[in-house]
Design brief:
Number of helices: 8
Oligomer: single chain
Distance between the termini: 21 Å
Strand content: 5-15%
Strand order of the largest sheet: 1-2-3
Length: 211
């Protein structure tokens, strides 16, 4: 039903035309401060399989992606506990210099809150100010839009059982609201098919619509 509704909107707006981009994922590190139950991606620093890319390596991957026809880069990673905030702005600038024509979609809401914390600008009583500081600097460095990851399922019960420690729905939505205020488009995802029920899926989508 959701797909049929989406297709109905698409046809109303664009007729029979369809649009797409050629996307390449770059995961700059799998080292993460969190330990979500569903995640097989994360590693702790020093653990077998853990890796960290410097900004030059990320830029080189961007060049390879462009040579293969990519029109968009999707850059996300773990919540690295040791990288300074400058690492992320330097990364975007290096990629932008290497492939100036490619759209940069980078950093989930969870990562952006983490960046605000390591930059020491995140305040629980006024989190939007710190998020705006972070997103403004990332935008100046080349950020074009946000991916939708980290939303998972907007429900406290599901949150506490499967990915406790991640930001909750109110914070996730605030990140995307601030991004929109700065002129950045964003996506939203839903991670379903685990412990959530159908009602929780519908509430998640309604929160996005209302948000």
């Amino acid at each position: 039903t959701v797909c049929e509704l989406a297709d109905s909107v698409r046809r109303r707006l664009h007729g029979s035309a369809a649009y797409y981009n050629v996307n390449r994922h770059i995961n700059y590190t799998n080292v993460c401060a969190l330990s979500c139950k569903f995640c097989a991606f994360y590693r702790k620093r020093g653990e077998e399989g853990a890796y960290e890319m410097d900004v030059h390596a990320v830029a080189e991957e961007a060049r390879k992606a462009a040579a293969s026809g990519a029109t968009e880069l999707h850059i996300v990673g773990g919540l690295h506990p040791y990288h300074p905030f400058d690492y992320y702005t330097d990364m975007l600038r290096a990629v932008r210099e290497a492939v100036p024509h490619i759209h940069l979609k980078a950093f989930t809401a969870v990562e952006l809150v983490h960046l605000a914390r390591i930059a020491k600008v995140y305040r629980n009583d006024d989190r939007k100010e710190g998020l705006r500081w972070v997103l403004s600097r990332l935008k100046d460095a080349g950020l074009g839009s946000l991916p939708g990851g980290g939303a998972e399922v907007f429900d406290d019960r599901v949150h506490d059982e499967t990915f406790k420690g991640k930001i909750r729905s109110d914070v996730w939505l605030d990140v995307h609201r601030v991004a929109h205020e700065l002129g950045l488009n964003t996506n939203a995802t839903i991670l379903y098919g685990h412990i959530e029920n159908r009602r929780e899926r519908l509430v998640h989508m309604d929160m996005l619509r209302q948000g």
